[in-house]
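Note to self: the last two entries modelled the partners one at a time, which told us nothing about the interface. This time every component goes in together.
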Amino acid sequence: MTVQQQTRETANATNGIEGSTDERLLQAIASGKRPDPASGWSSTMAFASRALLRIKHIPEQMFDVTLFPIIFLLMFTYLFGGAIAGSTSDYLQFLLPGILVMTVAQITVYTGIDLNNDIRKGIFDRFRTLPIWLPSALIGALLVDVVRYTMASVVMIALGLMLGFRPEGGAVGVFLAIALVLVFSFSLSWIWTALGLIVRSEKSLMMMSFLVMMPLTFISNVFVDPTTLPTWLQGFVNINPISTLATAVRGFMHGMGTWQQVVNVLLVSAIMTAIFAPLTMYLYRNKT
Amino acid sequence: MKEDKKILQNNDWAIEANGLVKIYGKEAAVDGVDLAIQKGTVYGFLGPNGAGKTTTIRMLATLLPADAGSARIFGNDLVSDGAAIRKRISLTGQYASIDEDLTGIENLMLIARLMGYTRRQAKTRAMELLTAFGLDHAAKRQVKKYSGGMRRRIDIAASIVVTPDLLFLDEPTSGLDPRSRNQVWDIIRALVRTGTTVMLTTQYLEEADQLADRIGVIQRGKIIAEGTSSELKASVGRGTLNVQLVHAEDRQQAIDILEDYLGAAVHHGTDSTSLTAQADDSMRVGEALGEFARRRIEVSDFSLGRPSLDEVFLTLTGHSAEQQDSGEEIL
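The predicted structure of the combined assembly is written out below.
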């Protein structure tokens, strides 16, 4: 009883002190008129601006698209160049398109990690109770990730040019090659968003991505010409989607790109998106 | 309850739920919950940790499908009209439902833009809410640097960027100091005055007592009592008499008189001059006090009160509300 009485007194006291703000509070609450619902485009842009604001507040997020490309390119060029191609500058011509594919493919996992973090906080519930076109939450974030992948590509090619990379396909070839990398990475991201909704923690997601991406990126044509490999391994390398992309990127950067290579990359991307984008949306809507 | 339902039109209900069930593994977290919450009222969902409060709210907010039972929010079916329901509700979860890496104003602007405001309108609305909630000084600070009370307020502000018709508040004041708690209470009262229906969960009896028009007591997934605060208190049926004697030496005589007149056990209070006893009948209390006067037993203070909600809870559940249930909170 006494506790309750005290509580009432405190409550009354508070009302007394803050009586002046009461009107303002009522006014603010009452003036929340419901506008016309946001279009899919505007909610996508709102989520994209959230992702940009997060980069502004946590700039360390950009390490993966700035430092990773630099470290990977320098490390593998000088580590393997002499041994594999006899000279680092020759190897760089072969390696750069592949290492670009590898770097960007590996950082796609962060899309899933960000989503996994949202789920474990209450904001995920907030978004799901809003009257919005729900896929915009993921597409907005993915669009900003595409910007990040572009940045990684630009950093790597700029460094490559300084180290002596000479793309025979010219600016147009490089541009087309980057476009293929972006389409592929956008599609690959859906795998991580789907997994990000399933796994318990970001640690498990990191581990899973490591288990998948390490073999996929290394047992491919990124580092070596597959004809030097045992036949059974060549079979895996040839069906590996990372090889498909690396072949096309290498082709366009060196002026030897074919429509068939473009079709192959788009086909692989379409398959990944067709399976994992709807799966992600289903899991997002029905996560319990 | 049943009769009320017949009199009120169908459109007078914010929430109607019938036999909601949610099962995790073999355990029923929510085990047949019925609710009828009238528009414009505050409903307090009271129960210990793990009783099924959060699970029920998550089902009603379209976040979690029910395993059995049905519910209508403003007449819209929970399963088939989820989109229509989401246009009228808002949820403030138990854990911060905002982006803690963003600033206060960025969070509110994000929600405002998602609701359909233009960038400029979003900014105006965000500032209006921040000012009204006493957060304007922290508008450009990251929410992770906010105090507990400020976090709760920005969280509620995010829920009412567009004034919802129904607001779910999951333990809105747990872990807050009394001042912050009163601020949140003021916000809830103001919301109700503008016509919003509020369903809140709480483990605190005073909170339900202070805010709720009706209270549902939930334990192990079942509603074990339902009604207004007074009805719940009356359902326990007993009042309590507290007597403060002037002289400690009168105590034994006073105990004898009270036991005689009230027919109930008398308990010693915190000191040697205070006594408490259960008293069902106020006439008998008067007679007992009259007997005190005849015997020259001086009384410095006495009170006859109905049982507190705490006593109600104890009677209903066998343990006090704040005491933790054995199970962990099921999300």
